[in-house]
Amino acid sequence: MNQEEKYKAVIHSMDEYTYQWNPENAEDPSKPILKITKSSLGSHDWCPKKYDFSYIQRLPQDQTEAMLKGTVVHNAREDFFNEFDIAKAESMNNIELLDYCQSLFPIDDYLDIYLTIASTEAERFIEAREEDKLDEYIPIVNEGLFDAEITFTSNQSKKFTLQRDYKIHLQGIIDRVFREGNSLIPLELKTGPWKDYKTTMMRKEMAFYQMMIEAAPEEVLIKNGLTKDMKVTHWGWYYPVSNYMYVEEAKKRSMTSVIDGIAKLLYAYEQGIFAPKFYFKTCSHCSFFGICDAAQTDSWL
C-alpha cells in the first residue's frame, strides 16, 4: 500500500461516525449526539468559526505541504516499528544499529527528519538493552484507532453548564503508546518545529488520548493490545525537526481543560453560535481566511 492509499484508508475508517450534530438521538441513550476527535475539539478551541467551516458546513480544504509531510512521516515511523527486528538488532554494535535504523526509513523529501528519528531510536534501543528492557522498546500501540462513548453530564464542567446530559462519541488515532509494566505512556509525533508555547496544547491533546483510552470498551482495548488494568501515568511528545522529545507525568488540570473544551463545544451547539476569534498572525494562515467575514473586516482595522 503506497502513502496515498494508506492516507485514504485512515480517512475512511475515521468516517465510520460523522461529526453531524444529531439532536434526534438526545432521547436515545444508546446513540451519541456528536462525534468528537482531538482535531475537531482543538479546532473549536482555536476558533469556533473555523470549526463551523470544517465540521458543520464541511467546506473543503487544500492539502498543504505541512499536512502532506505529517502524513508521510507518520506513516514512515509506523512502518519503522512494524519492521524493526529486536532479535536482529540485539547483537549489533552502535554504528551497525544506527545504520539499521536508517535503513528502515524510505528515501524521499523528508530524509533529514528520518535521520534524526533513526538516531533517536538507536539511542533508545541502546538504553533499553543496557537496562534489560528490550521488551518495552516496541510500542504496544502503533497508530492505533480508538473509539469510546461517554455520557457527558450537564454540570461536568464548572465553566459551561449544559441544558442536559449528552452521550458523545470519542474517536482518534494515537501515534504510539509505550508500556512500562502496567503503566501506559502515549507519545505524539509532530512534524513541525518545537516552541515552548505549544506545551499547553500538547497537554490537552494527550489528556484527550487518556480520556479515550480510559473510556474505551474492552473490545477496542484488546484490538490495540491493552487491558483495563493498564493506566496512563505519563505522556509525551516528539518533535524530530527540533530534535526534541519530552515525557512527563499526566496532569489532572489538563484533563479538566479537555472537559471544559468539550462542554464549550456542546454549549455552542445548544446556542447555535460559533463566533470567530480573529488574530491576524494565525488567521492569515487559515484555509478559510478569504471567506471569513471577521477576517475580511478585522484584518483592515
CATH class: Alpha Beta
Report the span from N to C terminus. Answer: 50 Å
Q: Give the averaged pLDDT, no decimals.
A: 89
The CATH architecture comes to Alpha-Beta Complex
Unreliable parts: 2-15
CATH fold name, please?
Lambda Exonuclease, Chain A
What does this structure look like?
It is a single chain. By secondary structure, the chain is of the alpha/beta class. The protein has a single domain (3-84, 138-271), classed as Lambda Exonuclease, Chain A. Helices cover 45% and strands 17% of the residues. It has 12 helices and 7 strands. Strands 1, 2, 3, 4, 5, 6 and 7 form a 7-stranded mixed β-sheet that branches.
Keywords:
alpha/beta, Lambda Exonuclease, Chain A, 7 strands, disordered N terminus
In short:
This protein has helices at 3-14, 38-46, 48-56, 65-83, 86-89, 94-103, 111-130, 199-215, 218-223, 252-271, 280-283, 293-298; strands at residues 34-36, 141-152, 166-180, 183-189, 231-232, 234-239, 244-249.
Topology summary:
Elements: H1 3-14, E1 34-36, H2 38-46, H3 48-56, H4 65-83, H5 86-89, H6 94-103, H7 111-130, E2 141-152, E3 166-180, E4 183-189, H8 199-215, H9 218-223, E5 231-232, E6 234-239, E7 244-249, H10 252-271, H11 280-283, H12 293-298
Helix pairs in contact: 2-3, 2-10, 6-7, 8-10
